[in-house]
Amino acid sequence: SVSGAFWEHLRHLGLQDFPCGLGSWNKSRFDACTRPREGQPGLGADPAGQEEAMPLGDESPEALMELLSDWHSPWALPPDCSPQDQHLREMAVLAPELVRGSRIFQVLRSLRIVGKGVEEVDNGLLQLQQLEELILSANQISSITSANLPRTLKVLELCCNAVADLQDLCTQPPPELQHLGLGYNRLCGPSQHKYLTADFWPNLVSLDLSFNNFTDLLGLVSQLSSLQKLRLLVLQGNPLVLIPTYRGFLVDSLPKLSILDDIHIGPDERHQFHGLARQPELIRSEARVVVSIGEIKGVPDPSARQPLEVGSEAPVITYSYCVMYKF
Q1: 251 with 260: CB under 8 angstroms?
Q2: Is 96 helix (H, G, I), strand (E, B) or coil?
Q3: φ and ψ at 107, to 5 degrees?
Q4: Exposed site from 55, 79, 167, 237, fewest CB < 10 Å?
Q5: pLDDT tens column, 222-247
Q6: Cβ contacts of residue 156 below 8 Å, gap of 6+?
Q7: What is the pLDDT of residues 5-26, one digit of tens each?
Q8: Minimal CA–CA distance to 135: which of 120, 163, 115?
Protein backbone atom coordinates (compact mmCIF):
# COMPACT_ATOMS: atom_id res chain seq x y z
CA SER A 1 0.00 0.00 0.00
CA VAL A 2 1.01 3.64 -0.30
CA SER A 3 1.01 3.99 3.49
CA GLY A 4 3.38 1.05 3.90
CA ALA A 5 5.75 2.50 1.29
CA PHE A 6 5.49 5.91 2.97
CA TRP A 7 6.58 4.65 6.39
CA GLU A 8 9.39 2.64 4.84
CA HIS A 9 10.52 5.80 3.06
CA LEU A 10 10.54 7.75 6.33
CA ARG A 11 12.60 5.02 7.97
CA HIS A 12 15.09 5.27 5.11
CA LEU A 13 15.38 9.04 5.65
CA GLY A 14 16.44 8.49 9.28
CA LEU A 15 14.64 11.52 10.67
CA GLN A 16 15.17 10.34 14.25
CA ASP A 17 18.82 9.35 13.83
CA PHE A 18 22.02 11.41 14.00
CA PRO A 19 22.43 14.11 12.80
CA CYS A 20 18.64 14.52 12.79
CA GLY A 21 16.15 14.07 15.62
CA LEU A 22 16.78 14.38 19.34
CA GLY A 23 19.80 12.80 20.98
CA SER A 24 22.89 13.39 23.03
CA TRP A 25 24.18 15.63 20.24
CA ASN A 26 21.48 18.29 20.81
CA LYS A 27 19.18 17.26 23.66
CA SER A 28 20.49 19.82 26.14
CA ARG A 29 19.95 22.60 23.60
CA PHE A 30 16.29 21.69 23.17
CA ASP A 31 15.86 21.14 26.90
CA ALA A 32 17.12 24.70 27.38
CA CYS A 33 14.65 25.98 24.80
CA THR A 34 11.63 24.15 26.15
CA ARG A 35 12.36 24.40 29.89
CA PRO A 36 14.28 27.66 30.52
CA ARG A 37 15.80 27.91 33.92
CA GLU A 38 17.83 30.55 35.67
CA GLY A 39 21.17 30.91 33.98
CA GLN A 40 20.03 29.04 30.89
CA PRO A 41 18.73 30.68 27.66
CA GLY A 42 15.17 30.16 26.51
CA LEU A 43 13.44 30.57 23.16
CA GLY A 44 13.98 34.30 23.05
CA ALA A 45 17.59 34.20 24.13
CA ASP A 46 20.49 35.42 22.08
CA PRO A 47 21.86 32.65 19.78
CA ALA A 48 25.40 33.70 20.63
CA GLY A 49 24.62 33.07 24.28
CA GLN A 50 23.38 29.58 23.42
CA GLU A 51 26.59 28.90 21.54
CA GLU A 52 28.62 29.90 24.56
CA ALA A 53 26.47 27.88 26.95
CA MET A 54 26.51 24.75 24.76
CA PRO A 55 27.91 21.85 26.84
CA LEU A 56 30.63 19.54 25.63
CA GLY A 57 29.34 16.77 23.37
CA ASP A 58 26.61 18.92 21.83
CA GLU A 59 26.72 19.86 18.16
CA SER A 60 25.62 23.25 16.87
CA PRO A 61 22.76 23.39 14.32
CA GLU A 62 25.24 24.73 11.76
CA ALA A 63 27.53 21.73 12.21
CA LEU A 64 24.63 19.27 11.93
CA MET A 65 23.28 20.98 8.82
CA GLU A 66 26.71 20.80 7.22
CA LEU A 67 26.67 17.02 7.65
CA LEU A 68 23.47 16.91 5.57
CA SER A 69 24.67 19.22 2.81
CA ASP A 70 28.25 18.04 2.32
CA TRP A 71 28.24 15.35 -0.41
CA HIS A 72 31.30 13.75 1.21
CA SER A 73 29.35 13.18 4.41
CA PRO A 74 27.99 9.67 5.07
CA TRP A 75 24.71 11.28 6.18
CA ALA A 76 24.10 13.24 2.98
CA LEU A 77 21.12 12.31 0.82
CA PRO A 78 21.84 10.94 -2.68
CA PRO A 79 21.78 13.48 -5.55
CA ASP A 80 18.45 12.17 -6.91
CA CYS A 81 16.54 12.78 -3.66
CA SER A 82 13.49 15.02 -3.81
CA PRO A 83 13.47 18.58 -2.41
CA GLN A 84 10.83 17.39 0.05
CA ASP A 85 13.20 14.75 1.46
CA GLN A 86 15.92 17.36 1.94
CA HIS A 87 13.44 19.71 3.60
CA LEU A 88 12.29 17.02 6.04
CA ARG A 89 15.84 16.21 7.09
CA GLU A 90 16.69 19.87 7.59
CA MET A 91 13.56 20.28 9.68
CA ALA A 92 14.56 17.22 11.71
CA VAL A 93 17.75 19.09 12.64
CA LEU A 94 16.32 22.55 13.31
CA ALA A 95 12.93 21.55 14.78
CA PRO A 96 12.95 17.79 15.41
CA GLU A 97 9.70 17.83 17.40
CA LEU A 98 7.79 18.81 14.25
CA VAL A 99 8.64 15.55 12.47
CA ARG A 100 8.10 13.14 15.36
CA GLY A 101 5.18 10.69 15.21
CA SER A 102 1.93 11.97 13.74
CA ARG A 103 3.15 15.59 13.67
CA ILE A 104 4.87 14.90 10.35
CA PHE A 105 1.43 14.66 8.74
CA GLN A 106 1.00 18.40 9.29
CA VAL A 107 4.18 19.43 7.45
CA LEU A 108 4.20 17.18 4.37
CA ARG A 109 3.20 18.99 1.18
CA SER A 110 4.65 16.51 -1.33
CA LEU A 111 4.93 12.71 -1.34
CA ARG A 112 6.93 10.80 -3.96
CA ILE A 113 6.64 6.99 -4.01
CA VAL A 114 8.17 5.81 -7.30
CA GLY A 115 8.93 2.24 -8.38
CA LYS A 116 8.10 0.64 -5.01
CA GLY A 117 5.64 -2.02 -6.25
CA VAL A 118 2.64 -0.22 -4.72
CA GLU A 119 -0.71 -1.80 -5.66
CA GLU A 120 -3.18 -0.05 -3.35
CA VAL A 121 -3.91 3.59 -2.59
CA ASP A 122 -5.25 3.13 0.95
CA ASN A 123 -7.02 5.52 3.31
CA GLY A 124 -3.84 6.09 5.32
CA LEU A 125 -3.15 9.02 2.98
CA LEU A 126 -6.03 10.92 4.57
CA GLN A 127 -3.76 11.63 7.55
CA LEU A 128 -1.67 13.88 5.28
CA GLN A 129 -4.02 16.82 5.66
CA GLN A 130 -1.72 19.34 3.93
CA LEU A 131 -0.63 17.14 0.99
CA GLU A 132 -0.69 18.97 -2.36
CA GLU A 133 1.47 16.74 -4.60
CA LEU A 134 1.29 12.94 -4.85
CA ILE A 135 3.68 11.15 -7.24
CA LEU A 136 3.02 7.40 -7.62
CA SER A 137 4.74 6.67 -10.94
CA ALA A 138 6.09 3.26 -12.01
CA ASN A 139 4.07 1.15 -9.59
CA GLN A 140 1.39 -1.52 -10.07
CA ILE A 141 -1.77 0.46 -9.36
CA SER A 142 -4.83 -0.64 -11.34
CA SER A 143 -7.54 1.24 -9.46
CA ILE A 144 -7.66 4.37 -7.30
CA THR A 145 -10.44 5.06 -4.80
CA SER A 146 -10.79 8.83 -4.74
CA ALA A 147 -12.21 8.77 -1.20
CA ASN A 148 -8.70 7.81 -0.04
CA LEU A 149 -7.07 10.90 -1.56
CA PRO A 150 -6.54 14.09 0.48
CA ARG A 151 -8.89 16.85 -0.63
CA THR A 152 -5.98 19.28 -0.73
CA LEU A 153 -4.27 17.55 -3.68
CA LYS A 154 -3.29 19.75 -6.62
CA VAL A 155 -0.99 17.31 -8.44
CA LEU A 156 -1.66 13.59 -8.95
CA GLU A 157 0.87 11.66 -11.07
CA LEU A 158 0.08 8.02 -11.91
CA CYS A 159 2.36 7.51 -14.91
CA CYS A 160 3.45 3.92 -15.74
CA ASN A 161 0.85 1.98 -13.80
CA ALA A 162 -1.96 -0.39 -14.84
CA VAL A 163 -4.97 1.95 -14.65
CA ALA A 164 -7.71 0.82 -17.04
CA ASP A 165 -10.80 2.45 -15.52
CA LEU A 166 -11.33 5.94 -14.06
CA GLN A 167 -14.70 5.33 -12.42
CA ASP A 168 -13.40 4.90 -8.86
CA LEU A 169 -11.06 7.86 -9.23
CA CYS A 170 -13.94 10.09 -10.31
CA THR A 171 -16.33 9.18 -7.47
CA GLN A 172 -15.01 11.92 -5.15
CA PRO A 173 -12.04 13.48 -6.96
CA PRO A 174 -9.94 16.18 -5.23
CA PRO A 175 -11.74 19.41 -6.19
CA GLU A 176 -8.59 21.55 -6.50
CA LEU A 177 -6.57 19.17 -8.69
CA GLN A 178 -4.58 21.05 -11.37
CA HIS A 179 -2.47 18.26 -12.91
CA LEU A 180 -3.54 14.68 -13.63
CA GLY A 181 -0.89 12.35 -15.04
CA LEU A 182 -2.21 9.11 -16.57
CA GLY A 183 0.45 8.43 -19.20
CA TYR A 184 1.57 4.87 -19.95
CA ASN A 185 -1.51 3.16 -18.54
CA ARG A 186 -4.25 0.97 -20.08
CA LEU A 187 -7.00 3.49 -20.73
CA CYS A 188 -9.10 3.26 -23.87
CA GLY A 189 -12.26 4.92 -25.13
CA PRO A 190 -15.00 5.70 -25.51
CA SER A 191 -16.03 4.31 -22.11
CA GLN A 192 -13.44 6.52 -20.33
CA HIS A 193 -14.20 9.76 -22.17
CA LYS A 194 -17.04 10.71 -19.81
CA TYR A 195 -14.62 10.88 -16.87
CA LEU A 196 -12.46 13.56 -18.53
CA THR A 197 -14.80 16.52 -18.09
CA ALA A 198 -15.16 19.59 -15.88
CA ASP A 199 -17.82 17.77 -13.84
CA PHE A 200 -14.95 15.88 -12.19
CA TRP A 201 -11.95 18.18 -12.79
CA PRO A 202 -13.15 21.82 -12.74
CA ASN A 203 -9.66 23.24 -12.05
CA LEU A 204 -7.54 20.98 -14.26
CA VAL A 205 -4.75 22.88 -16.02
CA SER A 206 -2.55 19.97 -17.20
CA LEU A 207 -3.61 16.50 -18.43
CA ASP A 208 -1.32 13.69 -19.56
CA LEU A 209 -3.02 10.81 -21.39
CA SER A 210 -0.01 9.74 -23.43
CA PHE A 211 0.64 6.15 -24.49
CA ASN A 212 -2.77 4.70 -23.75
CA ASN A 213 -5.22 3.29 -26.30
CA PHE A 214 -7.53 6.19 -27.20
CA THR A 215 -8.80 5.93 -30.78
CA ASP A 216 -11.90 8.16 -31.01
CA LEU A 217 -10.63 11.71 -31.57
CA LEU A 218 -14.05 13.33 -32.03
CA GLY A 219 -15.49 11.68 -28.93
CA LEU A 220 -12.51 12.56 -26.76
CA VAL A 221 -12.37 16.20 -27.86
CA SER A 222 -16.09 16.67 -27.22
CA GLN A 223 -15.48 15.84 -23.54
CA LEU A 224 -12.17 17.68 -23.14
CA SER A 225 -13.74 20.87 -24.45
CA SER A 226 -15.55 21.26 -21.11
CA LEU A 227 -12.20 21.71 -19.29
CA GLN A 228 -12.11 25.50 -19.49
CA LYS A 229 -8.85 25.83 -17.52
CA LEU A 230 -6.93 23.19 -19.48
CA ARG A 231 -3.72 24.63 -20.94
CA LEU A 232 -1.44 21.59 -21.39
CA LEU A 233 -2.50 18.32 -23.03
CA VAL A 234 -0.41 15.26 -23.92
CA LEU A 235 -1.92 12.60 -26.20
CA GLN A 236 1.16 11.31 -28.04
CA GLY A 237 1.47 7.54 -28.17
CA ASN A 238 -2.28 6.95 -28.68
CA PRO A 239 -3.57 5.49 -31.97
CA LEU A 240 -5.64 8.61 -32.65
CA VAL A 241 -2.50 10.69 -33.28
CA LEU A 242 -2.10 8.81 -36.59
CA ILE A 243 -5.11 10.69 -37.98
CA PRO A 244 -3.69 13.18 -40.55
CA THR A 245 -5.66 16.17 -39.20
CA TYR A 246 -5.10 15.24 -35.53
CA ARG A 247 -3.08 18.25 -34.37
CA GLY A 248 -4.93 20.84 -36.42
CA PHE A 249 -8.32 19.58 -35.25
CA LEU A 250 -7.25 19.71 -31.59
CA VAL A 251 -5.67 23.16 -31.89
CA ASP A 252 -8.87 24.59 -33.37
CA SER A 253 -11.22 22.66 -31.06
CA LEU A 254 -9.50 23.70 -27.83
CA PRO A 255 -8.76 27.43 -28.30
CA LYS A 256 -7.46 27.91 -24.74
CA LEU A 257 -4.83 25.18 -25.06
CA SER A 258 -1.23 26.48 -24.91
CA ILE A 259 0.84 23.30 -25.27
CA LEU A 260 -0.04 20.10 -27.13
CA ASP A 261 2.27 17.08 -26.94
CA ASP A 262 5.04 19.24 -25.44
CA ILE A 263 4.92 21.66 -28.41
CA HIS A 264 3.83 25.27 -27.90
CA ILE A 265 0.80 26.42 -29.92
CA GLY A 266 1.56 29.77 -31.52
CA PRO A 267 -0.71 32.33 -33.22
CA ASP A 268 0.44 31.23 -36.69
CA GLU A 269 -0.62 27.67 -36.04
CA ARG A 270 -4.00 28.77 -34.73
CA HIS A 271 -4.53 30.87 -37.84
CA GLN A 272 -3.46 28.01 -40.09
CA PHE A 273 -5.98 25.55 -38.61
CA HIS A 274 -8.81 28.03 -38.05
CA GLY A 275 -12.17 26.51 -38.95
CA LEU A 276 -10.96 22.90 -39.01
CA ALA A 277 -13.05 22.03 -35.94
CA ARG A 278 -16.20 22.73 -38.00
CA GLN A 279 -15.23 20.11 -40.58
CA PRO A 280 -15.46 16.78 -38.71
CA GLU A 281 -15.87 15.00 -42.03
CA LEU A 282 -12.13 15.42 -42.50
CA ILE A 283 -11.50 13.20 -39.47
CA ARG A 284 -11.07 9.62 -40.56
CA SER A 285 -10.88 6.86 -37.99
CA GLU A 286 -8.35 4.99 -40.04
CA ALA A 287 -4.67 5.10 -40.91
CA ARG A 288 -2.62 3.66 -43.77
CA VAL A 289 0.71 1.96 -43.21
CA VAL A 290 2.97 1.24 -46.19
CA VAL A 291 5.54 -1.52 -45.70
CA SER A 292 8.38 -1.81 -48.21
CA ILE A 293 10.35 -5.06 -48.21
CA GLY A 294 13.95 -4.31 -49.03
CA GLU A 295 15.54 -7.69 -48.46
CA ILE A 296 14.51 -11.11 -47.14
CA LYS A 297 17.23 -13.46 -45.95
CA GLY A 298 16.96 -17.24 -45.95
CA VAL A 299 14.64 -17.53 -48.99
CA PRO A 300 16.08 -18.76 -52.33
CA ASP A 301 16.11 -16.17 -55.09
CA PRO A 302 13.92 -17.55 -57.92
CA SER A 303 15.62 -15.36 -60.52
CA ALA A 304 18.87 -17.22 -59.96
CA ARG A 305 17.44 -20.60 -61.08
CA GLN A 306 18.26 -21.88 -64.54
CA PRO A 307 15.21 -22.00 -66.89
CA LEU A 308 14.12 -25.44 -68.03
CA GLU A 309 14.84 -26.43 -71.63
CA VAL A 310 11.89 -26.69 -73.99
CA GLY A 311 10.57 -30.24 -74.04
CA SER A 312 12.42 -31.26 -70.91
CA GLU A 313 10.76 -33.97 -68.90
CA ALA A 314 12.50 -33.05 -65.65
CA PRO A 315 10.14 -32.71 -62.67
CA VAL A 316 9.14 -29.18 -61.68
CA ILE A 317 9.21 -28.32 -57.98
CA THR A 318 7.29 -25.25 -56.83
CA TYR A 319 8.07 -23.42 -53.58
CA SER A 320 5.78 -20.96 -51.84
CA TYR A 321 6.58 -18.73 -48.86
CA CYS A 322 4.48 -16.75 -46.39
CA VAL A 323 5.98 -13.67 -44.72
CA MET A 324 4.04 -12.28 -41.74
CA TYR A 325 4.41 -8.87 -40.05
CA LYS A 326 2.98 -8.25 -36.61
CA PHE A 327 2.11 -4.65 -35.63
Answers
A1: yes
A2: helix
A3: -110, -15
A4: 79
A5: 999 999 999 999 999 999 998 889 99
A6: 134, 136, 149, 174, 177, 179, 180, 181
A7: 887 877 777 777 677 766 777 6
A8: 115
